[in-house]
Hints:
Layout: H1 10-19, H2 25-28, E1 52-60, E2 64-72, E3 78-88, E4 90-99, H3 103-112, H4 114-129, H5 141-144, H6 146-152, E5 156-159, E6 168-175, E7 178-184, E8 199-206, E9 209-214
Antiparallel strand pairs: 1-2, 2-3, 3-4, 5-6, 6-7, 7-9, 8-9
Amino acid sequence: MQRAKTHTTIAARRADFQHRYLQELDQYATGEYTSGETKGHPVGTDINVNIKKKFLLLEQKDSAAVVAFRFDGPDSIGLDGYLFFKKEGIWKLGNAKLTLASDEAIIAHFNTHKVDFEQLRHKVLDRLQSTKPESRDTLNIASEVKPDLRRLLIQSVHTGQNGCEECMEFLIGGVLDNTVGYYYFTDKKYVPAMSPDRLIMLREIGHGWYVFKTT
């Protein structure tokens, strides 16, 4: 099928990614996606035709948007990734990131242990509020809630995220800057924007909780 020149929506760019190689990169893509050894990749045609593909719009602003995708194969080994779009007259694909940890599995783990996560959050908050402000930087919260962390597969807990003293990061793990975990924000005004060079995924679970991945 010939490409319709009037396609300007994110859905159209997503279709380009899913079904074909972006041959006209200068017109329908931009930024890192158009340069380097991986120019124009990953793309949907890199993946076996028997793979099931799912897409979810995570964030859309006036000039930027993020779409999550999930590839599931017959061997049950899945692959998650994120498409970063920029509005340059039309929507263009600016970058694509792949990860091995499944968003759905991380969210399912939270939902299974939701009561425990809320109890952990309250323990951390109570300890934080009972500590003098000048001593909070040296407060080792993780050591005080170690049994809870082990049960919930959490490696560490950090507070003060994005200038919000009562916002928290529950880190599952990672290597160097490639981390996975949960955020809790008391207000959506503290929620940061996603970017292809740091916070590649931030997906709302509900009631202030989010799952995140960094690179």
